[in-house]
Amino acid sequence: MLELTEFQQDAVAELLNIGMGKAAASLSEMVKRKVDLSIPCVEIMLRRHAIEHIRDTVGNEVTAVKETFKGTFWGDAFLLFPESQSLELVRALLQEDALPLDVLSEMEQEALTEVGNIILNACLGSLANIFEQNFHCDLPRYAQGSCDIIFNRNLAAARSADAVLLVRMNFSLKANNIHGLLTLMMDVESMQALTDLINTTFGMID
To answer: What is the model's pTM?
Structure first.
């Protein structure tokens, strides 16, 4: 199985940290609340274990916004929230505590897709700028359901035994008791392309 050096792990984490910092600033401005970030975690693991890690972090029933990105390296970027918190996030975005539940529900998909679009594009855009690369990103897709259904639906062509690079970063709005997870999931070939790019960009080639 491909392994990342400590330097490569730190590089991926720091690059994501930069991108997520920009995204968090945008989200903080939207909800008028402080957004806390965790230190990014970068690991290579079997795909089924990656899904288990995600389930352990945000629960089995989730709201997800996914973007597929393609370029020198490629993969799927997901923004995930516990399904039980999605309406609370919409309420925070709209800053309207008195809106009835049916109105919130009608606006849920559009509002959360827009949030996912802002956060995921900030992260991917940061990577593109640092590596001086262009990515093609599909339109963000919204989904609700169990982790198994969402990831099997989005990764139908993948095998659970495949190794993936899982990049995870937690964020939270403590004032609203909301937390979420940003993940990038890449296959082995894409991982190799990413490590080659890190080595080239940061002068790690002899």
So the answer is: 0.84
55 in Cβ contact with 147 (< 8 Å): yes
* DSSP structural state of residue 206: -
Tokens read off for 107:
């606006």
- With residue 68 as reference, give the H or E element that holds it: strand 61-70
Cα–Cα distance measured from residue 136 to residue 67, given in angstroms and rounded to the nearest whole number: 10
Q: How many residues does the chain have?
A: 206
d(CA 171, CA 150): 21
- Written as one letter, the residue type at 28 is S
Predicted confidence (pLDDT) per residue in 179-206, tens digit: 888 888 888 888 888 888 888 887 765 4
Is the CA virtual torsion 63, 154, 67, 107 positive or negative?
Answer: negative
- Kindly state the average pLDDT of the residues 148-172: 70
